[in-house]
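Re-run with default settings, no changes from the original entry. Doing this only to confirm the output is reproducible before filing.
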Amino acid sequence: VVLTSGETSKTVSTLSTSVKLAEELNAVGTYSVAVRALGLVTETLNNANGVTVNSGLTITKLNNVNVTAVKNDGTVVWEAVEGTNNYAVYLNDAYVSNATGTQYGLTINDAGDYNVKVVAVGDGETTITSGLSNASAFNFNKLGLATNFAVTNDNLTFTGVTGALDYAVKL
C-alpha cells in the first residue's frame, strides 16, 4: 500500500488486505492510496510483483486540535478543525466523551493537576482521526476547597487553598 501526499510518500507492507490508516498516517494532509500485490520469484514460487493500482481513494488526516482554555467551570474550549465537527475529549489520557462544536463541560470534583486533550474525529472513510498521540496537551490545576470556617467578632476566617490567588466570598 502506497500513501502519497504531495511529494511525500509512505509505503506500508501488510500480509492482510487491510491497513489501519489512523496508525500509519502521522502527518496531516490529503493522501491518495495505491495498492500493489507483491510476490516472490524463486525456483518453487513464481509470483512476480503486480502493477501498482491507483485505488481512486483520497483520505485526509485531520489537523491536531488546539485547546485554548479550560474555564473555571470546567469548560474546555478549542479551535475548530476543518473537515469535522466531531471531537473526542480525554482527561489524563482517559477517554471522557465525544463532543460536537468547540467546547465541552468537564466534571471534576477533586483538586489536583489535570491534562486535557481533544482529538478531531474523522468519519473513517474520507477523513482520518487526528490521533491522541499527536494531540497537544492543555495542563491545568483544579484548586481545593476552603475549609475550617469560623466567625469571631464579626470576622469570617477560613483555611486558605494552596495556589489560590484570591477568594470570592458570597454573602
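The chain has a mean pLDDT of 82. The first strand starts at residue 2 and ends at 5.
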